[in-house]
C-alpha cells in the first residue's frame, strides 16, 4: 500500500528554537500572521490537517519567541490574535477520540512549557478543546484536586499558584458540572473576575441570566477591570433581547474605540435599531465639556450644522478644523468659514498641540477665501480683528503672526 506523503508546512522552518533575537519583534509578528494564514488556508480544505498545523505552531511559539523583546506589546497582541484562530481550528476539527487524546497530550505539554503566557488562551478554552463533555469531565477530575489544594494553601496564608486553574474551570463548564463549578469558585479567599467569569457563563447556561448579571457585578476584584464585567453584562442583556436596557446601562461606556469616531461606529454596529443622530447626541451628553471632540464624528456623518455648533461650543483641535475648512472650501463655503473662524478662536485661546505660525495663517487664509466666496470679506475681517484684540495665546502668538499679515 502506497503511503501518503506527509504535508510540508512552510512555517515550521521559520519557528525553530531561538529563531528570533531580542530585536526580532517586527519580523516575529509578520511570521505569525503568515503562519496563521497558511494554517487557515489548509483548514478550509482539510480540517484535520489544519488542526495538526495549529498544534505544531502552538508547540513552537514559546521556543522560537522566548528571547524576543515584547515590551512594546505588539508581539503579545499578535500572539493573542493568532491563538484565537488556532484554538478555533483545533476545536472545530472532526477528530476521533484517539486523535484528540493525542492532541490534548501534546497541547498540555506545550501549555506547561510556555514561559510567559503565550498559550493562556488555550488554557481558558481547554474544555472546548477537549471535545466531548465526557473528555472534559475526565480532565476536570484530574485537575480539580490541584486547584482545590492551591486555593486552600492560599487561604491559609501560603501563596500558591497553579497554571491549570483556568483549564479546570473551563472543563467543568464544558462538562455541564455547573453547580460544582460555582461551589469551587467560592473557595479562594479573594474575589477574581478571571475565576468568576466561568461562574457567570455557568449561570447563563442554567438559564439564570438575571442572576448571572448580579453575580458578574459582584465579581470585581482588586485588580479587575469593571469594563470587562460590564461588557459581559451587556452581552447577556443583548442575548436576552433587552436592547434598550443594554444600551442605556452599558452601550455608551463599554464600546470605546481608539477615536471618538471609532467609538460611534462600534455602538452603531452593535445597536442598529438606534438612530445615528440619537447615538451621537447621547455620546455628546455623556461627555460634558468635551463637545468639540465630537466635531470630526459629526462631520464624517454629514451633520455639518451640528459639527459647526460643536466646534464653537468647546475646544477643538485647530489642525482638525483647518483641514475641514480646506476640504469644504469649495463645496460648503459657509461651513468652511465657520470652522476656520472657530480655529482662529481656539488658537487665540491657547489651544492646540505643537502649533506653528503656518497653522494660524492657514486658518486665516481659509476664512478669508470662504468670506470672499460668500461676499462677507469686510465683516469677517472685522471679526478676525476682534479675535486678535482678545488674543490670549502664549506670548500673544496669534497676534504676532497675523499682525504682520492682517491688514
Keywords:
22 helices; elongated; 2 domains; mainly alpha; 407 residues; single chain
Topology:
Blueprint: H1 25-45, H2 47-65, H3 74-92, H4 97-113, H5 120-124, H6 126-130, H7 133-155, H8 165-174, H9 178-185, H10 193-205, H11 209-217, H12 226-239, H13 243-251, H14 260-270, H15 276-285, H16 295-300, H17 304-313, H18 318-328, H19 333-348, H20 357-374, H21 377-389, H22 397-403
Structure description:
There is one protein chain. This protein is an all-alpha fold and 407 residues long. It has two domains: 231 residues; 87 residues, no CATH class. α2 packs parallel to α4, α9 runs antiparallel to α10 and α18 runs parallel beside α20. The longest helix is centred in the middle third of the chain and has 23 residues. It starts with 24 loop residues before the first helix and ends with a helix. The mean pLDDT is 94.
Q: Count of DSSP helices?
A: 22
Q: Note the overall shape.
A: elongated
Structural class of the secondary elements?
mainly alpha
In whole angstroms, the N-to-C terminal distance is 95 Å
Query: What ranges have pLDDT less than 50 throughout 5 or more consecutive residues?
Result: none
Mind summarizing the main beta sheet?
Answer: none
- SSE order in H/E notation? HHHHHHHHHHHHHHHHHHHHHH
Helix content: 55-70%
Average pLDDT confidence is 94
Strand proportion: under 5%
Count of individual domains: 2
Rg over CA atoms: 29 Å
Strand tally is 0
Amino acid at each position: 500500500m502506497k503511503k501518503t506523503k506527509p504535508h510540508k508546512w512552510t512555517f515550521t522552518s521559520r519557528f525553530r528554537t531561538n529563531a528570533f533575537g531580542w530585536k526580532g519583534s517586527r519580523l516575529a509578528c509578520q511570521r505569525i500572521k503568515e503562519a496563521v494564514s497558511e494554517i487557515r488556508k489548509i483548514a478550509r480544505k482539510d480540517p484535520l490537517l489544519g488542526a495538526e498545523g495549529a498544534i505544531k505552531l502552538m508547540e513552537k511559539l514559546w521556543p522560537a519567541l522566548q528571547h524576543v523583546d515584547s515590551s512594546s506589546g505588539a508581539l503579545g497582541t499578535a500572539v493573542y490574535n493568532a491563538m484565537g484562530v488556532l484554538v478555533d481550528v483545533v476545536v472545530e476539527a472532526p477528530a476521533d477520540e484517539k486523535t484528540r487524546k493525542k492532541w490534548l497530550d501534546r497541547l498540555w505539554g506545550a501549555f506547561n512549557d510556555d514561559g510567559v503566557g503565550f498559550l493562556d488562551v488555550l488554557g481558558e478554552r481547554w474544555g472546548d478543546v477537549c471535545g466531548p463533555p465526557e473528555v472534559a469531565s475526565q480532565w476536570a477530575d484530574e485537575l480539580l484536586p490541584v486547584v482545590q489544594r492551591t486555593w486552600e494553601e492560599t487561604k491559609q496564608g501560603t501563596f500558591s499558584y497553579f497554571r491549570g486553574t483556568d483549564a479546570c474551570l473551563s472543563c467543568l463548564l464544558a462538562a455541564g458540572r455547573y453547580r460544582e463549578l460555582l461551589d469551587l469558585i467560592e473557595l479562594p479567599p479573594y474575589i477574581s473576575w478571571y475565576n468568576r467569569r466561568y461562574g457567570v457563563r455557568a449561570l447563563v447556561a442554567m438559564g439564570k441570566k438575571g442572576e448571572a448579571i448580579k453575580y458578574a457585578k459582584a465579581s470585581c476584584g482588586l485588580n479587575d477591570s469593571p469594563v470587562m464585567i460590564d461588557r459581559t453584562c451587556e452581552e447577556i442583556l443583548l442575548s436576552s433581547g433587552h436592547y434598550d436596557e443594554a444600551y442605556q446601562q452599558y452601550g455608551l461606556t463599554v464600546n470605546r474605540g481608539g477615536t471618538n469616531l471609532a467609538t460611534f461606529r462600534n455602538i452603531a454596529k452593535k445597536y442598529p435599531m438606534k438612530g445615528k443622530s440619537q447615538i451621537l447626541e447621547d455620546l455628546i451628553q455623556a461627555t460634558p465639556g468635551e463637545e468639540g471632540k465630537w466635531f470630526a464624528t459629526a462631520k464624517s456623518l454629514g451633520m455639518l450644522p451640528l459639527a459647526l455648533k460643536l466646534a464653537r461650543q468647546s475646544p477643538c483641535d485647530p489642525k482638525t478644523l483647518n483641514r475641514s475648512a480646506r476640504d469644504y472650501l469649495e463645496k460648503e463655503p459657509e461651513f468652511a468659514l465657520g470652522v476656520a473662524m472657530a480655529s482662529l478662536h481656539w488658537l487665540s485661546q491657547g489651544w492646540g498641540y505643537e502649533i506653528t505660525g503656518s497653522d494660524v495663517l492657514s486658518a486665516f487664509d481659509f476664512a478669508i477665501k470662504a468670506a470672499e466666496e460668500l461676499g462677507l470679506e469686510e465683516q469677517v475681517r472685522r471679526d478676525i480683528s476682534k479675535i486678535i484684540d482678545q488674543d490670549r495665546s502664549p506670548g500673544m502668538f496669534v497676534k504676532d503672526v497675523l499682525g504682520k499679515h492682517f491688514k
